[in-house]
Amino acid sequence: MWDSLRRRAGKAAPDASVDGAEVGFREPAMQGNTTKVVRELSSGVSKLGRDAAEVRGLLEDTQKVVTSQAHAMQALGAELEQVRHAQDGINQSTNQTREAVGRARTALSGVGEEVGGIVATLRQVSGAASEITKIALQTRLVAFNASVEAKRAGEAGRGFGVVADAVKDLAAQVEASSKAIMGTVGTLDSRIENFSRELRADGSGGAGQSKILQAFADVEVDVDLIAKSAQESQATTQQLAERSGELGVEIQQAMRKLESAFACSDRFLRLSEQMIEQIASSGVEVEDSPYIQAVQGAAAEIAGLLERAVKEKRIEASALFDEQYQQIAGTDPQQFTTRFTQIADQLFPEVQERMLKFSDKVVFCIAVDRNGYVATHNKRYCQPQRPGDTAWNTANSRYRRIFNDRTGLASARNQRPFLLQTYRRDMGGGNFVLLKEASAPVTVAGRHWGGVRLAFGF
User: Fold this and answer.
1) Beta bridge partners of 402
2) Positive or negative, the Cα torsion across 50, 373, 392, 351?
3) In the chain, what are the domains?
4) DSSP code of 376?
5) Quick check: pTM over 0.85?
């Protein structure tokens, strides 16, 4: 693009005049116009990049919502399946209850017949007791008469009189016992007769309806209501399951469309970033040029500090390129340490803190290894984590973390002279800020270690 502009500027100058002085006068004017156009184009592309980053951020928010909805629909489907199993269990239980009530009815019918037999037996017992009472009464009369005759016989009948009195007393005891039996049997017979009538009632309603059978009838009515409700609930659940399935399909379609939109937004964002890089590489001083030069200087300084540390045996080269990230227990977001964490704490702040004073627009300046690991951040973002406060930690405890998102990895693994990106930065708690970022590679002893990231506002 810039070659084309230069060719156009070069062709226009000779055609302006044959007078060398006049040509010389017009060339600076053409260059000035070109510079103005480039700067205007830079400003426009910068706004374009900002809009592209904003769109991509909104797509990310939408994707999170859709993904959450997809998980919710999956959970709902599983819960509906559990409800369906529970309703099948209810239907099975109601059928079993209905069958149990039927068996109880049959059993009660048999009990009623048995109770009828018991009533008949008790009446036989009562009749036998009544006969015993009669016999005992007659025995008492006979014993009384024998006792009278024995007294009349005098001394000769004394022994017989004693026997007669004993028989009379025994007959009295027998009479009392038989009467007690008759009373008890009478009471029992009355109760059993009432119970028998309950069991024999046909349950057809009215005053003579069996309370027991009515209770069973009430149970059957309740069981039928439960079964009906379960069936209605099952039908509703089936409809919900079908609708849930339809929504699940729609969500999957939405996710695929979002993926396409993501791909499109990424292409759009990359195009805007490439245009910004080309403008910055044109040699024309644009708004981003000072930040590019500053980050390149910082990267060179970090590289020099690391090379000196290796030469002075303050750290081994193998430790400097350590990728065995050790998790720090109890941290959220997760934090890590490596074998070069300590040397980074010693060397990096000198450069990183100074870069914060480069411009009021600078938000942060950090050195990262090629995997996006930030051993030490700017001091303002190196606050100790607060247990259980993830949002605060996300915003304020950004050191000892790995930022391997699209922007983070691109900056960490870039080996070109510089890279310009536009993105949204997550500040925790649903807060985001739009940033530009210039990054430059850090090479130690000819080996790519990572990069320096300089983020600044619009």
Assistant:
1) 373
2) negative
3) 288-458 (3.30.450.20)
4) S
5) no
CB 133, CB 179: distance < 8 Å = yes
For 84-94, the pLDDT digits (tens) are: 777 677 777 77
By CB neighbour count within 10 A (0-12 exposed, 13-18 middle, 19+ buried), where does 279 fall? buried
| Distant-in-sequence, close-in-space partners of 298: CB < 8 Å, separation ≥ 6 | 351, 352, 355, 365, 440, 452, 454
The percentage of the chain sitting over the pLDDT mark of 70, rounded to a whole number, equals: 63
Tokens of residue 295, six digits: 């980050």
Residue 52, CB-side half-sphere exposure with 13 Å CA sphere: 24
* Structure confidence at residue 24 (pLDDT): 42
Q: Are strands 447-456 and 362-369 parallel, antiparallel or unpaired?
A: antiparallel
Q: How many Å apart are CA 274 and CA 287, to the nearest integer?
A: 16
Nearest to 439 by CA among 423, 161, 231, 193: 423
Q: Taking phi first (over 0 means left), then psi (-120 to 50 degrees means alpha), and beta for anything else, what does residue 139 get?
A: alpha
pLDDT tens-digit series, residues 32-54: 666 665 656 655 566 666 666 66
Structure tokens at 63: 């994707």
Inter-helix orientation angle 158-200/211-280, to 10° = 40
Give the residue carrying structure tokens 């099975």.
92
CB 56 within 8 A of CB 266: yes
Residues in the chain: 458
Intra-chain end-to-end CA distance of the chain, in Å = 25
